[in-house]
């Protein structure tokens, strides 16, 4: 039976997985969601003996069922190869009474690599399957990590161009350096004078511009997205939760069928939504613990049932989570609204018009799988130092948010269920914030002096991604206003 995808805002839209990947976003502005979530058809014992690539195939074959086995395995093998610095792809490290799932061993040292290493291959395969003749223009907003991971994934991929917008003063120095030094004849990076939400809204508006779509089609182009609004980005993220569970069995830490908790630091809700989908595929997850930083719009939502972005935007030391419009939450809202596009569209219109919406009590009752909390900047720093002092293990600022919230959860509930924490970025990506948290004496060091010192105290080799940018020249220096984003896209495409 074929699995089709529907738009969260229009019940009449029905497409295959490959068509959903190509489009990225539905024409009505909705997100593509599977009509139903298939159940894993391999036992956990079988999965526990598999490599990352084989687990990926077992998960993705169910969600992307219009791909042949040959097509899917080809995409997987091209993605999860020597770009990763460990054969495990996503190792588990035990510290602070939890299992840290290290998702940062790819080429850009952030969890986005897990999906963005494969998305270009899924996209190109989807284009061939659907006889697309146009070049694909990947248009993406980033809060820091998606941008570099997408640029690295699509650089010099034939038949594509990639344009990334980022908040000029809203990413870490390392994140910015990674993006603006990106090579590739088809890569474009633009800073905007605004925050991530401005960048994301600007990109969505460009996607929704029907006149522009016609002009682009005439010029031989069509848009797609590398953000987690693209189902081809979200599905690969399900894989690592299944893999983590399988590894816990293989290591003898849990028995097959035993429940675990998953803690995920998130702003856009994509990474924790993937864990929710994994649970719905049959993974025995007890609680999905949603960790926010001081931009705690998701915590407030889970606490009150009201989503309200009308608040000050706070720049934190965990910038990839500095988000007030959590795009992927829409997929969950659609589900708890009884898969009603009509009801979901009403709420999303309210968000657009008033900056807020409120779910019904019946919808709120369906959020029992989730627990939300947040970490302040001071708590975040204190947790980094605590984990370093206690375990000689260094985590980045985003993973520390997750670890902080996990401690709050345990104190509140007394729940001792074994827990996986999604470790979403290498500490090398946020050296200044991490080293400041460990000891204030590092404040006078330069960014790359800090890198060397982090290497010394952690014993972890400096990743190639960092070494590569020490001396790399800046290749992208365009900065624009939010209202100039579309003009810059037209300029790049020559239309």
Short descriptors:
495 residues; Rossmann fold; 5-stranded parallel β-sheet; 22 helices; 16 strands; globular
Q: What would your notes on this structure say?
A:
This protein is an alpha/beta fold and 495 residues long. 45% of the residues lie in helices and 16% in strands. It has 22 helices and 16 strands. The chain has helices at residues 17-23, 44-48, 52-63, 69-79, 112-116, 119-129, 145-154, 173-180, 196-207, 210-218, 231-250, 270-280, 297-304, 329-336, 341-354, 361-364, 377-391, 397-413, 431-438, 447-458, 464-469, 485-493; strands at 5-7, 10-15, 32-34, 92-95, 98-102, 135-141, 160-167, 187-192, 221-224, 260-265, 285-292, 306-308, 356-358, 370-374, 419-423, 478-480. A 6-stranded mixed beta sheet has the order 4-5-15-10-11-14, sandwiched between helices. β1 (5-7) and β2 form a beta hairpin. The longest helix has 20 residues, at 231-250. The radius of gyration is 21 Å and the shape is globular. The mean pLDDT is 96.
Summarize this, please?
By secondary structure, this protein is α/β, with parallel strands linked by helices. The chain contains 22 helices and 16 strands.
């Amino acid at each position: 039976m074929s699995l089709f995808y529907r738009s969260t805002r229009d019940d009449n839209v029905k497409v295959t997985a490959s068509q959903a990947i190509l489009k990225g976003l539905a024409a009505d502005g909705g997100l593509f969601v599977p009509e139903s979530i298939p159940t894993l058809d391999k036992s956990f014992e079988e999965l526990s003996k598999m490599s990352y690539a084989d687990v990926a195939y077992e998960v993705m074959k169910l969600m992307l069922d219009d791909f042949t086995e040959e097509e899917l395995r080809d995409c997987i093998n091209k993605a999860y190869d020597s770009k990763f610095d460990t054969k495990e792809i996503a190792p588990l490290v035990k510290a602070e009474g939890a299992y840290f799932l290290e998702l940062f061993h790819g080429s850009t040292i952030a969890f986005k690599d897990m999906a963005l290493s494969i998305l270009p291959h899924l996209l190109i395969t989807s284009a061939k399957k659907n006889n697309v003749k146009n070049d694909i223009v990947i248009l993406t907003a980033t809060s820091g990590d998606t941008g570099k991971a997408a640029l690295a994934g699509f650089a010099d991929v034939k038949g594509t161009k990639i344009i990334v917008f980022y908040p000029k003063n809203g990413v870490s120095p390392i994140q910015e350096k990674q993006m603006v030094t990106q090579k590739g004849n088809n890569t474009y990076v633009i800073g905007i004078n605004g925050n991530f939400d401005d960048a994301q809204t600007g990109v969505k508006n460009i996607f929704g511009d029907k006149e522009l779509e016609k002009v682009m089609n005439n010029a031989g182009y069509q848009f797609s997205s590398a953000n987690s609004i693209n189902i081809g980005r979200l599905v690969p993220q399900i894989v690592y939760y299944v893999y983590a569970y399988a590894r816990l069995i293989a290591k003898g830490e849990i028995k097959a069928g035993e429940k675990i908790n998953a803690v995920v630091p998130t702003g856009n809700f994509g990474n924790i939504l993937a864990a929710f989908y994994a649970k719905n595929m049959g993974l025995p997850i007890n609680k999905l613990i949603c960790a926010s930083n001081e931009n705690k719009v998701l915590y407030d939502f889970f606490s009150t049932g009201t989503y309200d972005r009308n608040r000050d935007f706070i720049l934190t030391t965990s910038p990839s989570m500095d988000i007030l419009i959590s795009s992927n939450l829409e997929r969950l809202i659609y589900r708890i609204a009884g898969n009603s596009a009509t009801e979901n569209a009403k709420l999303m219109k309210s968000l657009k018009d008033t900056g807020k919406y409120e779910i019904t009590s019946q919808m709120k009752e369906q959020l029992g799988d989730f627990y939300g909390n947040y970490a302040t900047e001071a708590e975040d720093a204190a947790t980094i130092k605590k984990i370093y002092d206690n375990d000689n293990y260094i985590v980045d600022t985003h993973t520390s948010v997750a670890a902080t919230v996990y401690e709050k959860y345990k104190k509140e509930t007394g729940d001792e269920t074994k827990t996986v924490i999604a470790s979403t970025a290498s500490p090398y990506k946020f050296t200044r914030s991490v080293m400041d948290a460990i000891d204030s004496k590092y404040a006078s060091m330069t960014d790359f002096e800090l890198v060397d010192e982090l290497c010394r105290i952690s014993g972890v080799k400096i990743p190639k991604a960092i070494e590569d940018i020490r001396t790399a020249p800046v290749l992208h220096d365009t900065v624009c206003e939010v209202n100039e984003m579309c003009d810059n896209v037209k300029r790049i495409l020559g239309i």
